[in-house]
Design a protein that fits this description.
homotrimer; about 210 residues; mainly alpha
């Protein structure tokens, strides 16, 4: 896999998630410190949990300070352009989906590199991609959006399966952009047509 | 200790906790993905935190994919039998209490095997047994039930002390079922007679 | 650094945080077990996350049972003196701020000792100091107070920067009390004059 391409995408994903975290925190009227914390957690939380579960410590961002800088830039960017971002929602959405896609692939690669099974690798990929958002929502005292939103983690799952299935047949140079595009398209279609997974109705559904 | 017996009980406990998580998530009208996540976290969260604290990584379920299958079976089972489970609440309760009991013993054994002190081992046992349910409730945005319910973690504590006290005098073949039965009976009595620990009233108790 | 002084301060901080956790839990009418859990998490949660992120496992309190005793003493103390503590709020506040200060320094020292960069070391210091309170508030189903309170983590940040800046010029014997006093004074001034960081207002600020 082209390391410099992946690194670039990783940074883009971190940046986009930091923006989404900063915006979510500002809607809750947190102070600047709170906004930074939520931006940080949203951008780096998924990778942190992945590294903890796999025993890769100190976790990545503790060894490469540039991640912190990117989160800081993301939060400042969200602050400066908060009025514009409203109308740029589509742009933000693309960045967010790009982050999802890249983190899915990165998480899988890291887990496969440690000799874990493909099923676990796909789980690590999904976890890297979505866990930051889950903590963000817990910190902001909401039922995690991931549980209510249009196909989200499921897009990562589908992308992960595609990536795993084609890994032996395609070089990374083609496979990475194909997987990213696939996840992006799934997200675009899901949001445009409000595709939801079916809910799993229990006895108390009428409440 | 008879490894195959413990393994069997472990699988039963995981299955039961997966069912309880799936039902809790479906009451919150989460989609199928959300239900799977909550079932997974409820069933495996306690053991995961235990392994993280003790530095046992990658954590257990990452190396043995059968745990994931059992969680999947548990969630599917909860879906298929969701109407019947309402009337089977007593059966479910027994399975849940069985899970509590087995996870308490497993957690203790794992900690003692790493040379940790008995007090810490009992804590690891309780944590293995109850932490999954705590995260489940946080994800579903409730005050963790463990803090409001009839004697629950306290049953694990009592079982852990019993297990520790008798470990030198009884072979595992007798001690494991005795401890399990003890915790089961504590739970049955606590729920039937609504036994609560006293609350610890602060100055603002009248609010 | 004088180990015995730091150890003493560490124990004082743990004790103070255990009291604050026990009081917070009792306001939520949790039972005795819940109170102990919240006291424990508040007092030891920050150090636990710090040790997990840095790969220092088993984490500190699993190897030194006296931490558990201190948490227990703190919770019992909070119970016995709950009426008096209301009027002793100022005393409690000083203990809490002392805990913040000491944990900031301890976290930094631990991280620097592992060869991590100063920026990460300051983050580990802040995290050690404030994370316990964050989990406490999540368990009690509140938006973490840290996000709403007068300058809190920011005091740790300022203290951490001071400590780092002066580390080469002053022996620990002077630097530790100076940093602690500095953080204490920041907290006193912040609370007395209701100093807040500015909020970061998003588009939906009028909601």
């Amino acid at each position: 896999m082209d390391i410099s391409l992946i690194t670039l995408l990783d940074l883009v994903g971190t940046f986009a998630f930091a923006i989404s975290g900063a915006l979510a925190a500002s809607y809750k009227r947190l102070d600047i410190f709170g906004v930074l914390v939520v931006a940080f957690v949203t951008a780096l939380g998924g990778g942190t949990l992945r590294d903890l579960l796999m025993g890769q410590q100190p976790v990545g961002w503790m060894l490469n300070t540039e991640y912190l800088l990117i989160v800081l830039f993301g939060a400042v960017f969200a602050y400066l352009f908060r009025r514009t971002l409203e109308s740029l929602r589509r742009t933000l959405f693309v960045f967010d989906a790009m982050g999802l896609a890249v983190f899915t692939i990165l998480g899988m690669e890291k887990a496969l590199g440690l000799g874990l099974s493909p099923v676990i690798a796909i789980m690590m990929g999904i976890l890297s991609a979505v866990f930051g958002g889950v903590i963000r929502d817990i910190l902001c005292n909401e039922i995690p959006l991931i549980f209510r939103q249009e196909i989200y983690a499921t897009a990562c799952l589908a992308g992960g399966i595609l990536y795993w299935g084609l890994e032996k047949y395609l070089p990374s140079l083609y496979l990475v952009p194909i997987t990213i595009l696939f996840i992006l398209i799934l997200r675009v279609v899901a949001v445009r047509y409000h595709l939801h997974l079916p809910t799993f109705k229990g006895e108390q559904e009428s409440i």
